[in-house]
Design goal:
- A hairpin with a 5-residue loop joins strand 4 and strand 5.
- The protein contains 15 helices and five strands.
- The protein is mostly helical.
- The protein has three domains: 71 residues, lambda repressor-like DNA-binding domains (434 Repressor (Amino-terminal Domain)), CATH 1.10.260; 155 residues; 154 residues, no CATH class.
- The longest helix is centred in the N-terminal third of the chain and has 50 residues.
- Helix 9 packs antiparallel against helix 11 and helix 12 packs antiparallel against helix 15.
- The strands form two sheets. Strands 1-5-4 form a three-stranded antiparallel β-sheet. The chain has a two-stranded antiparallel sheet with strand order 2-3.
């Protein structure tokens, strides 16, 4: 059997131990570049490093310098070589499994912080009616979860040896899985932050006091905030973040998968542009419509120029309201007793009249300099009818935004099916 070089011997011993170049370099206090140069026989280890290398790999200094074991016949045996390789692969699998398990266990800390953030927000908001305090506590915990997850991802990332082509793809896949798992946790952090936001921004009371939201309102507005945050974050991630992760080699994908990612990104960019243009058109139309019309334009009013007709009108309204509530006409003999419920007395043009102020939204009485009267009456029913029409217009404009969003989401879901990575 031909004698191995020192570099080849060191590489074989390292792989048999299931160690990376970085791990060997850390134990010898040298750079991983130095280990790589030794294994390529570009240079030899310093004499001071020989004893440490020999002790690390369980061999003698003489065996290390000769580049072979003391019993060449044993090493020449094909079965022994196969066993060493199997042992190396097994140790690599154990190391890979250990890193994955460590990352999973550490990630549970981030998930726990997210859950604690929600509990803290619920206690402050629902228990003590301190919505702003709950949001602040939740924000601190969520930021801590994000920082922890970044640290966990960096610390558990497996470095790839330059000369270890055998396990490179497995390491790349493991690193990619850890990054994608962290991305999912970051999405959870963002959604929780958006869900807690309403208890801070929608609870402003008098004197700048902050109170909590009821559970129903919190779930409603929190769900809307979280959905909006998810859609925005999803677009940013698919269009910009994922591309950066791939270009910086933090995420490794096969070439067909990369092509699918690029095609999906182009599709999403196109959909976002269409959505933004339509959203802008609807927003401009909304501004024009709401600027040109108001709620008062849809309120039907009654105008009087004769005070007597006005008096007759409001007193008839009162009598009709009275009959509806008491099932009989007001009696003139005991009018003081029967017409005193919610009755308002007033005077116009020297004539006293009565009316029910709760029946009217507006009573505008004006006498011009020439003595002519202008009396405008808007009933509560007419005001509510105008308000309903105006609300329907606003709801219609808002529904256009909803339809625009729904169409774009459906468009993306249908078209992106062929770009999804299994």
């Amino acid at each position: 059997m031909a004698k191995n070089s020192i570099g080849q011997f060191i590489a074989a011993l390292r792989k048999a131990k299931g160690m990376t170049q970085q791990e060997v370099a850390d134990r010898l206090n040298v750079s991983n570049k130095a280990i790589s140069r030794w294994e390529r026989d570009e240079c030899a280890p310093d004499l001071s490093a020989i004893p440490a290398l020999a002790e690390m790999f369980g061999i003698t200094c003489d065996e290390l310098l000769r580049g072979e074991r003391s019993n060449p016949e044993r090493d020449a045996d094909a079965e022994t070589v196969s066993k060493l390789k199997a042992k190396s692969d097994k140790q690599f699998r154990l190391m890979l499994h250990s890193r994955k398990k460590k990352f999973t266990n550490l990630s549970l800390i981030s998930v726990g912080l997210i859950i604690v953030a929600l509990i803290a927000a619920m206690i402050c908001n629902l228990g003590f009616s301190k919505g702003l305090l709950g949001f602040c506590l939740a924000s601190v915990l969520l930021v801590a979860a994000a920082i922890c997850q970044i640290c966990f991802t960096v610390s558990c990332r497996i470095l790839i040896d330059e000369d270890d082509d055998e396990h490179a793809k497995e390491i790349q896949r493991a690193n990619t899985q850890m990054v994608f798992s962290s991305v999912r946790i970051f999405f959870a952090i963002l959604l929780m932050l958006a869900f807690c936001l309403p208890i801070a921004v929608l609870t402003v009371g008098y004197f700048n006091s902050y109170y909590g939201l009821e559970i129903g309102s919190w779930i409603l507005y929190g769900g809307l905030f979280a959905a909006s945050a998810f859609l925005l974050a999803f677009c940013v991630y698919k269009i910009f973040v994922l591309k950066a992760l791939i270009s910086k080699e933090l995420v490794w994908l096969e070439e067909p998968a990369v092509n699918k990612v690029n095609a999906e990104r182009k599709l999403l960019k196109k959909i976002c542009i269409v959505f933004t243009v339509i959203f802008a058109i609807i927003a401009v139309a909304t501004y024009v419509i709401t600027s040109s019309v108001s709620e008062s334009d849809f309120r039907e009013s009654v105008t009087f120029n004769d005070p007597d007709k006005f008096i007759e009108y409001v007193q008839n309204d009162y009598d009709a309201w009275y009959r509806e509530g008491y099932d009989h006409e007001p009696s003139s003999s005991n009018i003081t007793n029967e017409l005193n419920h919610l009755k308002t007395w007033s005077e116009i043009d020297g004539k006293e009249y009565y009316y029910n102020s709760n029946l009217y939204d507006t009573l505008a009485i004006l006498q011009h300099e020439n003595g002519e009267w202008e009396i405008v009456v808007i009933t509560v029913e007419a005001a509510q009818h105008g308000q309903a029409i105006y609300s329907m217009i606003n709801a219609g404009l808002l529904s256009l935004h909803v339809i625009n969003l729904a169409v774009c989401v459906i468009w993306y879901l249908v078209k992106s099916r062929k770009y999804r990575i299994a």
